[in-house]
Amino acid sequence: MNKSTRTILAAALASFCLTAGSIQAQHQAQNITIQVSKPTAEVKPTMWGLFFEDINFAADGGLYAELVKNRSFEFDKPLMGWKEVKQNGGGTVLIINRTAANDANPRFARLTVDAENGTYGLLNEGFRGMGIEQGKQYNFSVLARQQGKGNLKMRLELVNEKGDKLGKSEIGDLTPEWKKHTISFKATATAPKANFQVLLQGKGVADLDMISLFPQDTWKNRPNGLRKDLVQMLADIKPGFLRFPGGCIVEGKDLANRYQWKKTVGDVEDRTLIMNRWNVEFAHRNAPDYFQSYGLGFYEYFLLAEDLGAAPLPILNCGMACQYNTGEVVAMDELDPYLQDALDLIAFANGPVTSKWGKLRADMGHPAPFNLKLLGIGNEQWDEQYIERYRVFEEVLKKQHPEIMLISTSGPSAEGPRFDYLWSELKTSKADYVDEHYYKSPEWFLENATRYDNYDRTGPKVFAGEYAAHGKEEQDPESRNTWYSAMAEAAFMTGLERNADVVHLASYAPLLAHVEAWQWRPDMIWFDNLRAVGTPNYYVQKLFGANSGTHVVPALRNGAAVTGQDSLYASSTIDRKTNEVIVKLVNTSKAVAPVSVSLEGATIQKRTAALQVLKAANPMDYNTLDKPQVVVPTERKHNFSGNTIALKLEPQSVTVVKMPCKKL
Ligand code: AHR
What we know:
This protein has 11 helices and 34 strands. It folds into 3 domains: 22-43 and 552-660, Golgi alpha-mannosidase II (Immunoglobulin-like); 50-65 and 218-252 and 274-337 and 372-472 and 487-521 and 542-547, Glycosidases (TIM Barrel); 82-215, Galactose-binding domain-like (Jelly Rolls, Sandwich), CATH 2.60.120. With 664 residues, the protein is of the alpha+beta class. The longest helix has 17 residues, at 384-400. The two termini are 46 Å apart. It is globular, with a radius of gyration of 27 Å. Bound molecules: alpha-L-arabinofuranose. Alpha-L-arabinofuranose (AHR) is lined by residues 53, 55, 246-248, 379-380, 412, 437, 466, 509-510, 520.
């Protein structure tokens, strides 16, 4: 059967499931038996995790709460994001490059000011504006010095789109040596698209660098930290791991622009900015102002993983640039620096504070190790050139760090000759996990809930590292995140859960997207400068992540797994920590599906089950920042008698049932 015939059949099958398939189910309850006393696999604590990549302004302009864009004038166009402001005064701005003195952060702005009776300075536009909230405190900092004599004072102003002031402060006495000045002020009004002005008053020459403005109210109130609302949404999923920093960003378009973790740690002003590869990746979504400041670097990723209670899972470049772009590879006899990066990363994360890299971690504020156990070698690499390089990493890392589990890749597709070749090679290796990616239609997800039922149990385990159901879109950026796509993912995820002996980790991708600055959709969470919205796909991830359980137990209908027969998908786990049986049920039909769930081998503690139901009025419904509550879960209690719970599953719904039992 060729691919297009398969696709047509899949679509027909899906529509059959969604319409006629369950008319029968309306009348007749489907009996599902949960074999509570027969666990088949442990659900690894890592099972449901997060994939983070700096795409769609996920880091700068997103999670990283810095409000100033191009704070160190290192963008290709050094004044991008900045505008001169003259108020009864004049002046000029010159960008000076001092590479020999400061290789990491060579440029600064020199402002020659003639404004005895006014001001001259620069306005920063932020990342599609700056989100400012009334009553909140904002922390400003700048590296500054004054050249020669002068009487310059610095005035700092937050202004809204109309130019009205939302907050201001002043700094005087610029010194001849570089000095960091900091000041904090309160915003008097809310504005989603504010700008920030650094104005100089008097006469003289001032040098400015690292001009920064952060909300004080960040995640855990960390200075220069992360956006609290976004991190909270991630925490609510209760993720088992955090994969970072991507994605293709690891690879770079070419090797010179690959992700190099060592350039993302240490003092923030010493982290060398580079262009973000998503800046020019898609002609229809060009983002010429997309760079990586690395304010959110590897230290911050490790810290975030720790905060979320998630295992850190960094992916490193393996000496290969993106094969969709240049496909450049490093010569085999020059692979050492790449390998050294991996060894040094393990030292940075886990090494003693007396070691070079452990000391850096301690100096940055975290003497305790980060407990790194998972490490990815390469992102979506393929063909012999990957295997050749991967094997070098494996040999050295397995010898020196047997405690680290290695993740290899099966390339960008979920099947095909490249995929098959990589798997066949990796089966003969010591890879612990193979990373699989699938961006497919919702129908594919519905059809592939059995994907892992017959997978080889002897080789490396599976990391479903990037997946999302891609459907059609409308005008709204969020419109690809339909309930239909989320429901299809949920159906597929019952298959991942049922096969938790093979699939140890899974993550939806990408994670975050700015509604005005995205390059790729669908995405799990959409945000603007002040708000964030969970997509239906987010709520599915949350349902699975927050209700994972500790062991898989069979959920059987007529002795077989429930994988789409009569439009019903199911999986079940027990939680030995909370003594609950957890059943996940996905009804993709347009009709109510009566089901009768019997617990075999369990002693019920309380005959009240907790139900969480996610559904929508229409399969094409989605949430937006303006209408965030279209598809959200609801919770209720459900009483039952004996060991059987009778449910009427709502049309096109995902239901999670939790039943308290005596010791499991
Ligand atoms: O998630 C977006 C991109 O999709 C990732 O960067 C890449 O790994 C995949 O092709």
